[in-house]
């Protein structure tokens, strides 16, 4: 699924109107019908409804919804804000249609004075003040209205976007002046703002309503941001040849663990084994030998000369991919060994956890990283890599895009919607995963999965897309049976076989 900018959304509407063809007012009517249906599915006509409509097309949608709800015997009160006496053409038409229908007995057009209605816990507020065209924070009377709505006990349904929330960048927005919706009914496609954790408090439950905008435009229009879907991933799966043997299925190296952190090495190694690779070698300190041998008997042990930490690089000629970082520690000896390892390695590399923290401690080394390296930071690790704390998720993603382009690297910024930043500057968001995966060790599992896929023969880009999708899907399958609260990282490994089977059936 593509994510369009607000400018592209405007062009999509325009293209649909010109090429369907359909009148803009009829397209608005189509949108209003879909919104009305979504509301009536959840709230009966015993629910009193207050509609707040702005002067633009979002307000036009809201007025049409008010008329349709009234036609279904809902008790509807409407407040149309026409402060500058400059309604959009379609908003003006729907104002007149609402008046002509004579179904709404409480219609208020606000020009100067506004006496806010009582909003009770029984009331449903329909927020149609501002949509995707908003490009600056709300101020003045609209900001006061938003605060009034937010302080009320009423449920709120927002049309397209919660009013005050901009479709893309909200870094410098005023959070107090954004509607806190219980349900957001967005039209046709997700907006970029919906993908960020720091906007979730405003969105509530999200539903995407298909209003049949031009598929021709959607297909032919380039988008910087996309969301990976199951159909995309299914096409990536490589068949496993009937005459395959371990020598043809790839040889992966995991450099992980320090004394007291062997669990990270176990998780990444087991995940790697479950990802279809023929052979896994684990390079870890001597003191981890016994526990690793017992925990991952299928793997080959390669012991570092030091007892407690990674101290010297490994020859990688015989390996098809390496994953480095989980539980590695941040000793200076380990840091020197790591940069030497990264410089000499010729096969694909996944860098995670303490390996990222070491690079953050020695940021000058980042200019020496090989092209197409895969980095898998969580937000705090990325901020360390960037050298400063981001003001929000949009800014952090933007920095990750720039870094991926500059380093010609693949950066997987982990989160609810994990974002893969490509060397081209494009971003692919993952659509699987859940909050139960917010637990220690899940990142180690992702490192193992991607390393295994690389060794198996997938390109860096495909391994990243497939790896993050499988990781999230296995987490979703585990959550269904074990619940989110009790989910642990090893559960994801246990459900990897089912995830593969679902994609390969």
Give a verbal description of the structure.
The longest helix has 23 residues, at 460-482. The protein has an eleven-stranded mixed beta sheet. It has a seven-stranded parallel beta sheet with strand order 4-3-2-5-6-7-8, with helices on one face. It has 18 helices and 18 strands. It is of the alpha/beta class and 505 residues long. It folds into two domains: 2-219, YjeF N-terminal domain (Rossmann fold), CATH 3.40.50.10260; 230-238 and 245-503, Ribokinase (UDP-N-acetylmuramoyl-L-alanine:D-glutamate ligase). Helix 2 (24-42) crosses helix 3 and helix 13 crosses helix 14 (393-407). It has helices at 6-19, 24-42, 57-71, 89-101, 140-151, 200-203, 215-220, 230-234, 262-273, 289-295, 332-344, 354-361, 379-386, 393-407, 442-456, 460-482, 489-494, 496-503, and strands spanning 2-3, 49-53, 76-81, 106-110, 124-128, 155-159, 183-187, 205-209, 225-227, 251-255, 279-285, 300-304, 321-324, 349-351, 374-375, 410-413, 419-421, 427-429. The model has no long low-confidence stretch (mean pLDDT 97).
